[in-house]
Amino acid sequence: MLSNPKVIAAPEGSQYNPNFPNYTERLPEGLAYSPNGQFLYIVTQFNIYQYDFLDDSMYHVAGIDTTAYQFQQYNASYLGPDGKLYIGNFGGLSKQMSVINNPDVKGAACNFCPRCLRLDSVFWYGGVGTPPCMPNYGLGAQECWPLESSEIGDKRLETLEVYPNPSSTYIDVNYEIRDKRNATIEMYNAIGQQVYSSQISHLSAHISIDVRHLAKGMYYLRCLPVGQTGENEVKKVIIE
After folding, report:
1. Less packed terminus of the chain by CB within 10 Å, N or C?
2. Do 96 and 178 belong together in one domain?
């Protein structure tokens, strides 16, 4: 489910296949986020761009490093567990892969290194295609519940009410817990990052949450009694 999508148009390539018009470079071959989430790297056949979410700027990281007819085109890109971004080759005829050593840094300081990951042991008639799809271990251990499509109930929680919903300023939360344990009200965004947490200590109460600083989109609110694991009450919240 997409909420308030933002469209980012790749530039018409400054370097491109001479057999095709330059607007074909607006079709990305690969996309990858920087570890800090500030930059999106857009990889086309002949160009690599860095898009900055903070100021909506687009920086041209690299183009071709030889003639267009000899160039081994760029392909899919993945963030490695070492925090570097690896960029593969179209067709897999090259024995080297390009690397962005500092993807968290803006502009030329991201340190793009063309064909720097050398795999010279590859057979002469083969080459390196795309890097493996590597999980981002930097995200840490995340629970899967924020991405579920249905709301989940728990027998220890009598009620969890959220209003108004959608909202752009404040949301009011009414809750009632069946047992006497303390609990936590938590809110997560769509990728499982916690954006709000508050301890509660009453069996039945009301709290108001300021959501004015949150980006538009869908969030997940839950009430988790202390010491409880597993399923718990979850409510979807729309920030508009």
Report:
1. N
2. no
